[in-house]
Amino acid sequence: MARCLAGDEDAWAELWQRYGPVVKAVARRAGCDDEEARDVLQRVALVALQDLGRLRESAKLPGWLAGIARYQALEMVRRRRPGEKLHAWSAVIEADPGRAIDRDRELAILRQALLRVDERCRRLIRRLDLKEPADSYREVAEAEGLSPTSIGPIRRRCLRRLGKIFDRLSQAGSGDHYQGEE
After folding, report:
1. Looking at the structure, do residues 101 and 167 belong to the same domain, yes or no?
2. What domain range includes position 24?
3. Number of domains in the chain
4. Is residue 121 part of a domain?
5. Confidence of residue 89 (pLDDT cuts 50, 70, 90)
6. Once rounded to an integer, what is the mean pLDDT over residues 21-25?
7. Lowest model confidence (mean pLDDT) among 48-52, 98-102, 158-162, 177-181
8. Are residues 113 and 57 in the same domain?
9. Distance CA 30, CA 94 (A)
10. What gap in Å lies between CA 69 and CA 26, rounded to an integer?
């Protein structure tokens, strides 16, 4: 980090070689496609270039970059899909060391929510949103015996179902209290 702040171009290249894939993974998990994930990486690099000097502890760099990536990615998704509610569960899978206890609880709720969506939705969400790198729509379509053009709408319906279940489980305070089906 000190070398980056001193303007060492090799240090910047090393930083992005190490953390670029993390930033792109955060963007993909937030709902960005590959092109959007590259855009998010560029935005995060610009913010880092401008604000890296404000970061006091180098150990916080990965979480700081992931947080910036999450924000930039969610903003990109919001602009692309105006009016569509983004669910809290989408940010749960991102590492945030300062929220370890909350994150563990939310991951447990997410696991419970995943068990309550139908099997096809579970497979699609795992392959398109939780797997890194995510499978392509074409790969998922072939495996599911569907048209590639149908994967996006099915995925959106599955994510909405998962989001509703996650929200209800979160409001109940535990994955054990919600009994409803979607």
Report:
1. yes
2. 2-80
3. 2
4. yes
5. low
6. 90
7. 177-181
8. no
9. 9
10. 6
Residue-wise pLDDT for 133-164, tens only, equals 778 888 999 999 999 888 888 988 998 898 88
Q: How far apart are CA 136 and CA 139, in angstroms?
A: 5
The residue behind tokens 């760099």 is 61
Q: Do 74 and 99 fall within a single domain? A: no
E-state strands within 38-148: none
Is pLDDT above 80 for 165? yes
Backbone φ and ψ for 94, nearest 5 degrees, come out as -85, 140
The residue with tokens 């300062």 is: 98
Tell me the CA distances in angstroms from 179 to 89, 90, 175, one per residue in order.
19, 22, 9
Contact call for residues 111 and 175 (beta carbons, < 8 A): yes
Indicate whether 182 belongs to any domain: no
* Residues 73, 111 within the same domain: no
